[in-house]
């Protein structure tokens, strides 16, 4: 059965071989059982691992957070049409109200609470650019909330690489992801 799975693993034939593995930004527990053994083996045997971004680097996380913000002095209320802003605010109030019922006992057992999680995801939302608010809203669903606290596949692999003392790096800089998204105009968002 494993051999019939599409592994999203490409081999670059050289000595030693190099591998290119396509990942997806979802909690690793949703996909780990479907990652074929050849991909897991290639990861285990690799000494150097490069990721899209270095999600274990505090600078990367800080820069990602900063790039999402509107220019100083601007708020989302200033750039969104009034009706959309009002509906967004109502939706976020609804999500905040519903989040405690979306949390799993396992999350609560690990000390994750709805108020904390809501603030971690949606905190400072009125200062964010519309494209980042759209991405944030798309992640505020019951199924996504239930999986919070579980690293996405990229982060899980980065943490594993660190644990196994592999050399790591990134193929992109935060700016290379941020600037194109921030360059979208309102109608594109």
Task: Describe the protein.
The chain has 189 residues and is mostly helical. It contains 11 helices and 4 strands. It has helices at 28-31, 37-45, 58-67, 76-79, 82-102, 105-109, 114-122, 130-138, 142-146, 153-163, 174-182; strands spanning 9-12, 18-21, 48-51, 167-170. The protein is globular. The model has no long low-confidence stretch (mean pLDDT 90).
Please render the helix and strand layout as text.
Layout: E1 9-12, E2 18-21, H1 28-31, H2 37-45, E3 48-51, H3 58-67, H4 76-79, H5 82-102, H6 105-109, H7 114-122, H8 130-138, H9 142-146, H10 153-163, E4 167-170, H11 174-182
User: Based on DSSP secondary structure assignment, what is the total number of beta strands?
Assistant: 4
Return the domain count: 1
Structural class: mainly alpha
The overall average pLDDT, rounded, is 90
SSE pattern: EEHHEHHHHHHHHEH
Helix tally equals: 11
Strand order of the largest sheet: 1-2
Helix fraction?
A: 40-55%
Biggest pleated sheet: 2 strands, antiparallel
Return Rg in Å.
Answer: 19 Å
Tell me the fraction of residues in β-strands, as a range. Answer: 5-15%
Shape: globular
Unreliably modeled segments: none
- Span from first to last CA? 41 Å
Family: Belongs to the TIKI family.
GO cellular component, one term: plasma membrane
Main location: membrane
Protein name: Metalloprotease TIKI
């Amino acid at each position: 059965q494993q051999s019939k799975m599409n592994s999203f693993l490409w081999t670059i034939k050289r000595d030693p071989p190099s591998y290119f593995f396509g990942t997806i930004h979802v909690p690793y527990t949703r996909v780990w059982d479907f990652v074929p053994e050849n991909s897991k083996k290639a990861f285990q045997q690799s000494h150097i691992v490069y990721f899209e971004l270095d999600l274990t680097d505090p600078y990367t996380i800080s820069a990602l957070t900063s790039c999402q913000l509107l220019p100083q002095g601007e708020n989302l209320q200033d750039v969104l049409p009034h009706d959309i802003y009002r509906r967004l605010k109502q939706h976020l109030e609804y999500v905040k109200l519903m989040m405690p019922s979306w949390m799993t006992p396992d999350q609560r057992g690990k000390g994750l609470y709805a108020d904390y999680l809501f603030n971690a995801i949606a905190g400072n939302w009125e200062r964010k650019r519309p494209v980042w608010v759209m991405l944030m809203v798309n992640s505020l669903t019951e199924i996504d909330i239930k999986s919070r606290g579980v690293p996405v596949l990229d982060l899980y692999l980065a943490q594993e690489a660190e644990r196994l003392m592999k050399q790591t790096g990134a193929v992109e800089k935060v700016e290379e992801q941020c600037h194109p998204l921030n360059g979208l105009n309102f109608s594109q968002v």
